[in-house]
Amino acid sequence: MAEAMSIRITSLQRYPVKGLSPEPLTSVTLTKGDYFPGDRLFAIENGPAGFDPDKPQHQPKIKFLMLMKNESLARLKTRYLDSITTLFIEQGGREVVRGDLSTREGRLAIEAYFRRFMPKELRGPPKVLSAPDGFRFTDSRRGFVSLINLASVRELENVVGAPVDPLRFRGNIHIEGLAPWAEFDLVGQVLTAPSGLRLKVTSRITRCAATNVDPERGIRDLEIPKSLMKAYGHFDCGIYAEVLDGGVIETGDSLDREQATLALE
Questions:
Q1: Which of 75, 129, 157, 186 has fewest C-beta within 10 Å?
Q2: SS3 at position 205
Q3: Residue 261: its pLDDT value, please?
Q4: Are 211 and 162 in contact (CB under 8 A)?
């Protein structure tokens, strides 16, 4: 099924701060061997995590504020302006804090807000962490770019008996044109875009309890991993890919399956 169908990009989004809200994009330039631009640049440490920016190592997400444990984060609307390195946070439809994350004062302002917003959920002082070059605060060590098949999400709605917002899965690229779960057949394959971009699909994405949280209301109202296991025998939704050759992608672009199959590394 994955070979026969045409894949179309329906939306692009990045998550500048781990656990906080997405930012929609109309186009993005991906670079060979790099992460999705502007994605998971920052994380908020929930008490000392032992992260060393000079020797960055992948850390379990439990060490940071994140939706799996802190569903109230979904009630915040955030945006990050790269040009001024500033994070804006809105709560209840109004701006409650902003901070230049390149400065100590700006980071302290954001940290002070989270001490007020969720004091009972903190294991220690919250601290804004910045990803050094070549590192991101992704859940997977090799989670460079994530793709979500919207047909699979619609199929999952039939299982849970309720609407499922695709943003629950916090993917970078939403795609149409595949049958439900046909994205799993693409693991080990290469997808190409009109710009010359080549994405090597590396693995399925295993889901955790963060997907149980409604991304608009910030409440746990579904049991996504449990439903996946009960209906399909796995916890997976979405796929990871690595950038083999860079290029621009836009909403509406097509992704085609390259004929040659590359072995997984």
A1: 157
A2: strand
A3: 45
A4: no
Residue 256 tokens, joined: 């085609």
DSSP H or E run through 104: helix 104-117
The neighbouring-strand residues paired with 145 are 241
Residues pairing with 236 in the sheet: 206
**What is the rounded distance in angstroms from the CA atom of residue 215 to the CA atom of residue 260?**
38
Q: What residue type is 216 in one-letter code?
A: E
pLDDT digits (tens, 9 = 90+) for 66-83: 999 999 999 999 999 999
Per DSSP, the three-state class of 88 is strand
Enclosing H/E stretch for 87: strand 86-91
Phi, psi of 24 (to 5 degrees): -70, 145
pLDDT band for position 59 (50/70/90)? Answer: confident
167, 215 Cβ separation under 8 angstroms:
yes
Structure-token pair, residue 125: 């002082």
Say if CB 169 and CB 237 are below 8 A apart: yes
The helix/strand/coil state of 233 is coil
Q: How many Cβ atoms are within 10 Å of 90's Cβ, its own excluded?
A: 16
Q: 30 forms bridges with which residues in the sheet? A: 247
pLDDT tens, 156-213?
Answer: 999 999 999 999 999 999 999 999 999 999 999 999 999 999 999 999 999 999 999 9
Distances (CA, A) of 188 to 148, 150, 183, 202, 259: 16, 20, 11, 6, 12
Rounded CA separation 247/216 (Å): 32
CA 95/CA 76 separation, integer angstroms: 10
